[in-house]
Amino acid sequence: MTRPRLFSGPEPLAPKVPEITAMFWLIKIITTGMGEAMSDFLGQQSVPAAGAIGIFGIWFGLRLQFRATEYRAPVYWFCVWMVAIFGTMVSDGLRDGAGMSYSVATVIFSIVTAAVFVRWYRSEKTLSIHSIVTRRREVFYWSAVLATFALGTASGDWTAIQLKLGFFPSALLFGGIIIIPGLLWWRGKLNPIAAFWAAYIVTRPLGASFADWFGKPHDATGLGLGDGVASGLMLIVFFALVAWVTARKNDIQEPGEHWHLPHPHLPHGAGLRAQPAEG
């Protein structure tokens, strides 16, 4: 079977995702909020134009990412940014276009996200972000990222709007939830891979809730800055942080003694720097 052109290109020579540091989580949360605000702002200007930008953006971002043979901070985070915008549009489109409630959308995207993880694990026997060293694993990884973005958008709107918590209380709620997997991992009660993905999923509604709080009008429990202003402010911070990690290069995964070959059913020689046993 011919591989789709979007996923074509050389096999990775090293892990295609950054090392997980405090800076990773900070950029991720800002990117999720920025994607939420920008998607809303573009939709307010023109829905057809917003849709075209979202589709082209995610295509271009994934194309750049898949054609790279190793992790590059500007390429990776640009792709995350485009996935954030597109994932928000998918979730909002189901609600506005199909009239689907936030709660139903949350359930549907929860099932989709779980299905991606199940299929990924059955195929690769690992969900470790340190194992993204083959094209197939990279496809699974970005499928999971897109699913979690859509899930986070729906769940954040569900708590803030449908459950009437408001955006800031919703942000505080998810801020408390995201601490739980970290504490469980620290106490040795949760596998590091499970802890990572649990926290990763929550970053989306956390960042989106803060973005909506900044941008939405007062009668919608926001500060009333406007989605355009909120987008611009977060974009400045985003560019500054990505430039920082690009210059420092301290977010590049380094091979270690705990790395081993990928699952034996993969093609010989694929991912010779595969995943560590944990994380």
What are the SSEs and their pairings?
Layout: H1 22-45, H2 47-67, H3 73-98, H4 102-124, H5 135-162, H6 167-186, H7 192-215, H8 227-248
Helix pairs in contact: 1-2, 1-3, 1-7, 1-8, 2-3, 3-5, 4-5, 5-6, 5-7, 6-7, 7-8
Protein name: Membrane-anchored protein
InterPro entries: DUF347
Pfam families: DUF347
Structure description:
The C terminus is likely disordered. The relative contact order is 0.17. Helix 1 runs antiparallel to helix 2 and helix 3 crosses helix 5. 67% of the residues lie in helices and 0% in strands. The protein has eight helices and no strands. It has one domain. The chain is mostly helical. The two termini are 33 Å apart. It holds the Pfam family DUF347. It comes from Paraconexibacter antarcticus.
The number of helical runs is 8
Q: How many strands in all? A: 0
Average pLDDT over all residues = 84
- Percent of residues in β-strands: under 5%
Poorly predicted regions are 256-279
Order of helices and strands, N to C? HHHHHHHH
Q: What Rg is obtained from the alpha carbons, in whole angstroms?
A: 18 Å
Compact description:
With 279 residues, this protein is mostly helical. Helix content is 67%, strand content 0%. The chain has one domain.
Keywords:
279 residues, mainly alpha, 8 helices, disordered C terminus
